[in-house]
Amino acid sequence: MASSDQPQRSADGEFPPLHGAQLALLTIAVAAATFMEVLDTTIVNVSVPAIAGSLGVSPAEGTWTVSSYSLAAAIMQPLTGWIGRRFGEVRTFVTSMLLFVAFSALCGFATSMDMLVVARLMQGLVSGPMVAIAQALLLRNFPPEKRGMAMGLWAMVVIVAPIFGPILGGWITDNLSWPWVFYINLPIGLLGAWVTWSILKKRESKKIVVPIDGIGLMLLVIGVGCLQFMLDNGNEKDWFGSPEILATAAIAIIALVYLVVWELTDKHPVLDLYLFKERNFLVGTSAISLGYFAFFGVNVVFPLWLQTTLGYNASTAGLAMAPIGIFAIFMAPVIGANIQRINLRVAASCAFLIFSIGMIWVAGLNEQASFWQLSSPRLWQGLGIPMFFLPLNAILMSHIKPNELAAASGLFNFLRTIAGSISTAMSVYLLNHRTDVHHTVLTEHVRTDSVGWQHAQQALHSLGWSDTGTLAYAERVINQQASTLAVNDIYSLFAVIFLLLIPLVWLARPPFGARMGGGH
Questions:
Q1: CA 101 vs CA 87, 104, 186, 476: distances in Å
Q2: In 10 A of CB 451, how many CB atoms?
């Protein structure tokens, strides 16, 4: 599969790009590995009740299978640059895939929750560098004029995989058993590792032996670990009314502040914060992280509302979410192939406008909306996904040097992951808080001197309902209405956030063609 001749590096130390069958096979292998890793961030979510029941723990304890993976992956993503330089990007990518397969098998074999959580933690640790290095490998090995297409395919995988995770996880859990959620990684990972190594084993990136920033790594682990614990448990423990949450929040703030100060002074930092001196990297990373915050929050609130308020089951809720991937699948390669011809800032602005309109659309719906009425906005929002992710990715990578690609990709993926974690916690908090607020307001109208309540009681009494029955019915309706109004509030908030991101995009400075060949 690989050429027997050793490829020669060019003057800048890079290998010539691949072409033909090798390039196609590499793209498939890298895309499959990326899909596998990103899929595992969501595929377990709908299987938590089944896992918890099988292993004899509560559903709350079962959620550690999700949070342990996210925590470990978030910690490792910033280390991608150092690991890639120290061991070589090709070797790191292939090793990560093989270890991911091994720990996926251990997850499936788990006979206790402790064993499963440890296996998921290790699975997250080894998966951390995979997505960032996948992006770097594609950029290094694609011809410059086709890098937009490469990023289009990569972005399509990164965005679509989490959407199909709940659907696939629900089907596997219902029709097979929960261990198969992990076993499906084995053939994909093994084949991807073999293909990648066969093609790229003689095209390894330059290795640079630098000492590990031990203090920075320690601060990163402590800061992100405490932050993740606070976000995972804040809603259950009444946030800052809990001494435990207060303590972890204080430790997280102190550790992360010291991390920033330390990384700016260390010669070999874990996080290369000086990348933010590049204006386009700062603007692009900020826009993607904030946009992902709003986008991820919707993906948390929407299925919760469908299942807890409208009575959807997990599979139907997943299907209601799925239409957002339809246009994204077809448009991402098109946008990528034409990225040199489009105005990147205009494209990103259009994406945020589409998202905002979609949010306002959903905010105007109520609990009587049909399945199609609820899924239609997500279908059209799919138009914005490629225009959101691809142009901003091109902007932030536009002036990054080849030897900084892995570090830059790792840093922005780390911030994107953290934004998603914060969004999850805040969205659930806002949903609960705004539901309580609306419930209080609505119950004020259920009183003896309220004309509306008097008419409602009379209508229910005429149908043979008792006073107890009418009150129970009123409570049920109020809960449903309060939850729906809370969701409308959250969607309206996210609509405003997307609109505010439009002027941020225009702070990026052309040209954008250094790494991606993007238009101005």
A1: 20, 5, 5, 47
A2: 8
DSSP 8-state symbol, 18:
P
Strand partners, 462: none
Higher pLDDT, 520 or 114: 114
Q: List the chain domain ranges.
A: 15-199, 218-269, 273-520
Second CATH level (architecture) for the domain 273-520 = Up-down Bundle (1.20)
Q: Given the structure tokens 């003689």, which residue do they identify?
A: 202
For residue 213, pLDDT beyond 90: no
Q: How would you class 512 by CB atoms within 10 Å of its CB: exposed for 0-12, middle for 13-18, buried for 19 or more?
A: buried
Task: Label residue 61 by pLDDT band (50, 70, 90).
Answer: low
343 SS3 class: strand
Share the mean pLDDT of the chain.
81
pLDDT confidence of residue 45: 67
Of 145-149, 223-227, 242-246, 248-252, the one with minimum mean pLDDT is 145-149
Q: List the Cα angle 167/168/170 in 5-degree steps.
A: 65
Task: Give phi and psi for 84, each to the nearest 5.
Answer: -65, -40
Helix residue spans in 364-466 (DSSP H): 371-381, 384-397, 405-443, 451-462
Residue given tokens 């498939």 in the structure block: 28
Long-range contacts of 311-316 (CB under 8 A, 24+ apart): 314/46, 314/166, 314/170, 315/167, 315/170, 315/171, 315/174, 316/371
CATH class of the domain at 15-199: mainly alpha
15-199 and 273-520, same CATH topology? yes
Lowest average pLDDT, out of 5-19, 169-183, 217-231, goes to 5-19
Q: Compute, in degrees rounded to 10, the torsion defined by CA atoms 187, 190, 191, 196.
A: 150
Checking if the pLDDT of 518 tops 50, the result is no
- Whether the pLDDT of residue 14 is over 80: the answer is no
Type of residue at 240 = F
